[in-house]
Amino acid sequence: MEQLGPDAASGDAMDSFLEKFQSQPYSGGFREDQWEEEFEKIPLFMKTAPLEIDPKENPDLACLQSIIFDDERSPEEQAKTYKDEGNDYFKEKDYKKAVISYTEGLKKKCADPDLNVVLYTNRAAAQYYLGNFRSALNDVMAARKLKPCHLKAIVRGALCHLELKNFAEAVSWCDEGLQIDAKEKKLLDTRTKADKLKRTEQRDTRKAKLKEKKEQNQNKTLIQAIKARNIKLVCGAASEDEDSASEGLGEPLLDGIISENPCGARVSLDDQGRLSWPVLFLYPEYAQSDFISAFHEDSRFMDHLMVMFGEIPSWDLEQKYCPDNLEVYFEDEERAELYRVPPESTLLQMLQHPRYFVKALTPAFLVCVRSSPFCKNYLRGRKVHRVK
Asked: Can you cite an annotated GO cellular component (predicted)?
């Protein structure tokens, strides 16, 4: 019987394979409607790799990862692999994944200080671009503990201090780096910018302190003027007894006088030593109000009423708010009593009344139409005093 040679045997095997291939079509091919999704599962063609790999869903990728990150390799080799992976992510500007890779490299705790310095400084760079300036600064400080003169760590630390508005520290770090390399452009530019901002900050701080001191002196002068007139102040809307109201004239107000009124107007002292106050006129019948930003203490109530009601307000549909028909009151909340204000009296005379307390540095008065049904009902059951 004639024996077949090697070439003939291999030819028969190929014929058999082709015959089987034609009779049994390949079942592992891509489905036409899902080829893009399945193509993405092949590690070589993946655009993005999952952070956590499930061996059942991505067996090929899990196999490659086990080869690359083999725990049997030395910590130095594994740390270097994570560093290279982080660098690839960094080049792609995927800074979050870069941080994760550098962190995994640091977890290996390899004995190579130079490699650890690179991992720290590279992670600092990724954190910097993510806007995590404090985390980046912590990393460069850790790098400098291992290698104090590492120039990249110093540069990145100076940039972090600049972003954190630690201008003096940024200048100091730049100076340290320039002792190593006096021509390092990033350090030169950063130092110039940080020094300029530091000087601006110092100037602004000086201005703020001078302004604060000036305001404190002005407030002190105002308080002295108010105390000299025996005007009683109440700080804020909280109910306070008469003793605490008197104490409101003391030191606590020297730190800053605050007026709680719609426009933030403040009591002021003119060149002649006379006070002007922000004053509220309240019209309870219509839940309306008028705000006078500067009511001079020597002005009469009638003078302001004549100005405010020289024209009929839009909310006075009955046209009854005429200056001659109006009555002005102030309220003693502690006693739940009302005091009728003579229209010809001045603001100072009312503020000096024994039962008037100025709240939040903004005197307030009620205005009603004399003998109107609302006024009668509003006054019913209240004790009303007539101020002489």
From this structure: nucleus
Residues 141 and 77 in one domain: yes
Q: What is the pTM of this model?
A: 0.54
Cβ 369 vs Cβ 325: under 8 Å: yes
- Whether 134 and 100 have beta carbons less than 8 Å apart is answered as no
What average pLDDT does the chain have?
A: 84
Cβ–Cβ < 8 Å for 342, 258: no
Q: What is the CATH number of the domain that holds 267?
A: 3.10.20.90
Q: Tell me the pLDDT tens digit for each residue of 173-201.
A: 999 999 999 999 999 999 999 999 999 99
Q: How many other CB atoms are there within 10 angstroms of residue 189's CB atom?
A: 11
CB of 256 closer than 8 Å to CB of 380:
no
Q: Are residues 146 and 246 in the same domain?
A: no
Picking from 285, 301, 312, the residue whose alpha carbon sits closest to that of residue 351 is: 301
Which residues sit opposite 290 in a β-bridge? Answer: 281
Q: By residue range, what is the domain housing residue 326?
A: 242-386
Structure tokens at 322: 């005429």
Residues 248, 382: one domain?
yes
